Amino acid sequence: VLDFEDTGSGDEAVDLARRHLIQPWPTAGAIGAEARGLIGEGDGIYITDGKGRRLIDGPAGMWCINVGHRREELARAMYDQAMQLSYNTPWYTMNEPSAMLAQRLAAHAPGDLSHVFYTTGGSTAVETALRFMQFYNNARGQPEKKLILSRGGAYHGSTYLSASLNGRPRDRDWMDGADGLVVKLTAPNPFRRPAGMSVEAFCDFLVDEFRDAVRGIGAEKIGAFIAEPVQASGGVIVPPENYLKRVRELCRANDLLFISDEVVTAFGRLGHVFASGDVFGIEPDMITFAKGVTSGYFPLGGLMVSERLLEDLRRSNHPDAMFAHGLTYSSHPVGCAVALKNLDLLEGGILDHARKIAPYFQARLKTLEELPLVGEVRGMGLMACVECVADRESNDPLQLDRQVGSRIDAHCHELGLLVRPLINMCVMSPPLIITKDEIDDMVTILREGISRTMEDLRREGVWRG
Ligand code: PLP
């Protein structure tokens, strides 16, 4: 959390925020009384802070500004649509952009994921997927089949049920959840696998654990498994090779719905519109998406659903059973119009660029492993994580690690880069339009930020690396 006590041009906003704003994820001690780093402008891969400093937007907002800031085409699409039709009720009317977008998304989705249900963001997309699973199993006469398998390290949202799936440290320390509905499995994090175990053996362990859980609980009680193909907020955890395919097969064999949460990985972050099929070779039953679908210009999310599931419902013994679920802003015409234009930009060269530049992005960041504070740099496509460890031998996340991300962020901010600090990790997921030179700038700043942090820690006598 950046706290600019003395922000020049932003003083009034800072003051107003302290008096009237509740920020997301506040702590009790600061709730309703904090200001965060003021951002005034965005342009391309850059943002400008309240002091007028230009920074590379390292996390692309929250993994969402995929085509970059200040794209006139997107602004115009929103304006044009708002002037034509700003809203219509999706309860008993429809609009053209939502249908056109649905068709284009279906064309990119793997397998028979032919239909879209639009939401307002990622949490509501995940919530919709889970409620759909419940409805589906009620309608086909299996009301006991409702448990959800999730994993350590996962992040799926901030609504009650989606948040109940979250498995990152601290997410649930002070929050309630629908614990009776969720079973958590081990995070598929090769970096934290048991000492002495190969990655292949770790993958076997994860698959065996999954199989054992299904056997132990009974497939007749489990409705779905949900997974981010690459765990994003958990620290860009790329699972072992073939892990997703093997678990997908287990889901199919046991009649569990596989929900692929692509809120981060879709819309070019891994070089494709959806990563499940094109990158991981799997056909989920549902895919949730948000963020990059509008490059963050409008709050929109959604759920791709398999034709097979819809057929099952249409043929069930309960044709009058109602999926009593919908949002005022489902199928929002302005959101769908901007998503259509965003898709034009992605298909018109940005996806190709993201695929081409990704190896350079990963290779340049990987050089940071030379620094003794860095335990691992990992990633895929245009998402990466620099994980710092106090003790490289044991990869031990010691107490010291907890502030390391914020310390690096503070130094990088001075140097011109916004970092997303996550405890001891720095996540990098810039706009997909980033060039090689800009990647060089980003890595140079990050290297300097980490080096300065190491000096600080040595000077304070808390680290001897
Ligand atoms: N799923 C994943 C994988 C996410 O990373 C996020 C947000 O970061 C969400 C769901 C929740 O999305 P939102 O914040 O748009 O509700």
Automatic annotation (TrEMBL):
The keyword Kinase does not apply. The keyword Transferase applies. Gene3D superfamilies: Aspartate Aminotransferase, domain 1, Type I PLP-dependent aspartate aminotransferase-like (Major domain). InterPro entries: Aminotrans_3 (IPR005814), Aminotrans_3_PPA_site (IPR049704), PyrdxlP-dep_Trfase (IPR015424), PyrdxlP-dep_Trfase_major (IPR015421), PyrdxlP-dep_Trfase_small (IPR015422). GO terms for molecular function: pyridoxal phosphate binding; transaminase activity. Keywords: Aminotransferase, Pyridoxal phosphate, Transferase. Its cofactor is pyridoxal 5'-phosphate. Pfam families: Aminotran_3 (PF00202). It comes from the Bacteria. Belongs to the class-III pyridoxal-phosphate-dependent aminotransferase family. This is Aminotransferase. It comes from Mesorhizobium alhagi CCNWXJ12-2.
